[in-house]
Amino acid sequence: MRGADASGPGRRCYTRHVGGKTRDRGLWLTLAALTVLLVVLAVLQYRWVSEIGRAEAERRQAQLERSAARFAGALDRELGRALMSFARMEPPRPREGDPRPVLVERLAAWGRDEHAALVSGLLLATRPRPGEARLEACAAGERAFHEVPWPAELMSLRQRLVGEEAVRERFVVRPGKLVERPLGLLFPLVDPGGGGPPAPPWGRYRVVGVVVVQLDLDYLRGQLLPQLTESHFGPAAEGDFVVAVVRRADRAVVYSSDAGVAMGAPRPDDVQRSLPGRFGRPGLDRPDRGRSTGPDEAPAEGPRGREPRRPEDESPWLLVARHREGTLEQAVASVRRRNLAVGLGVLALLGTTAVILATGAQRARRLARQQMEFVAGVTHELNTPLAAIRSAGQNLADGIVTDPAQVRRYGGLIEKEGGRLTVLVAQILDFAGIESGARAYAAEPVSVARLVDEVLGDHRLALDQAGMTVERDVREGLPEVRGDAGALRRALANLVANAVKFAAAGGWIAVRAAALPGDRTVVVRVEDKGPGIPREERERVFEPFHRGPAAERNDTPGSGLGLSLVRHVVRAHGGRVFAEGRPGGGTAFVLELPAASGGGGA
Fold first, then answer.
1. Contact 591/440 with Cβ under 8 angstroms?
2. pLDDT tens per residue across span 367-421
3. pTM for the whole structure
4. With b meaning 16 or more CB within 10 Å and e meaning fewer, what string describes 514-525?
5. Helices (DSSP H) in 85-216: which residue ranges?
6. Computed over its alpha carbons, how large is the radius of gyration of the chain?
């Protein structure tokens, strides 16, 4: 009967091996295809993020330019409105009367404007007679002009007013020109009745004086510029941009929306606008287009008949708008890295999930295969003793065996096979209790020496029948361990039975017990001289239902549960178990158990 059964498991093992390899190959092919797909998706993600980054860079730059243009236009309108409140379509003309009352009246009217604090007063520079220049001031709230000394910053204006240009009636002052010291906007006083050739850029007008509309820098910094910044760039603390007004000459900061950000040298992607732009009275910053030139007159210079702008006519202020995170490339790179990290993180999560699912499926298939092998092995293990018991019992019942010696031999056979059944059923019940979590262990002092002696005594007959020599090496004064004596006995018995089953050819088994230095750990070793266990199998032999290649090849009986139960019992007692090679061949199973505190020797 055993010969016929022996061929069956061999064929089943080969079939399972071939089927398992086919399924594993399909699984790895699927994982390889998924890996390639994820790599392709990662490349597409990188390209897509790069395209999005370029589009984002263009969008941000365009947004910055639009916001800067709107900001500059709004500031031009506010300053131009202030300027036009004093230099209207018909500016004050000295030949028609004194301009001072008109200017004082217009200054009082400006005091009722919503931005009244923007203008702090007026300065009036005139040339009462050739070679002489006078400077008068009228502060906001005053009703008359009074003469003041020329400040050093306006000396160039005084020299031009009394110099050769004024004598030749070619003195040029662009309406709306911004001066910094004192801070203000200039516009000219003209004499429409002056003789001589027309002086560009005002055609028949002759400049006889200059008015400076003085601006309040504190109001600009504290009110007007912050309002314009919030209106066109968003809240200063939350916006993507930093807005500053700097001096053109030395880039000193006049105003900044974020004082903590240094403006420094200009960057390639900075947006810059002159402040203020060109505004003023229509017709005062361009020549008369409808007037024909005389034979002695040269046409106006510059594009579209406009006189070329002089260096001194350049606005002294610049609007500088830049990205808060640094250069545009840095800002876009930061967004690109963030988007790329999110995308690659999602892909990595998908890949990891796929690997986990594939690994779980593989483990589930392996567990299902092991369970099927377990069922087949248990069925085989149950069938053999049951067949022997049934055959012996039937012979006894039929009276075929009547000799007392034969009856005793049959009784011994029934007892032996019944013992095999008992051990197998006990293992199955232990495994079921472990899996359900209902297995509990007692905690009592256990003598390791007595435990070794009991297990060797229980297996004395099996060891003698296998022809194995037993070496017992238990140190004197070995401390006790705390645990469940029955569970520890079954664990050690499984190791001894395992040695009898797989290493009987070596003809030798040793059970050693000693304490590590400090008497805190007790080590029990079960050694044999069998064929040994390959290094890659030494951890897997403790898995439930696992049976090594040699066991399946040699059709060695067993359920694959013994070593799994050993590991569970030892771990439940706070110890560990492992297998290692033995010098000279064979295997050593090592149990390390914590010693009971205050335990005595045995």
1. no
2. 777 677 667 666 766 776 787 788 878 888 888 877 888 888 888 888 877 877 7
3. 0.49
4. ebeeeeebbbbb
5. 100-110, 155-162, 164-167
6. 52
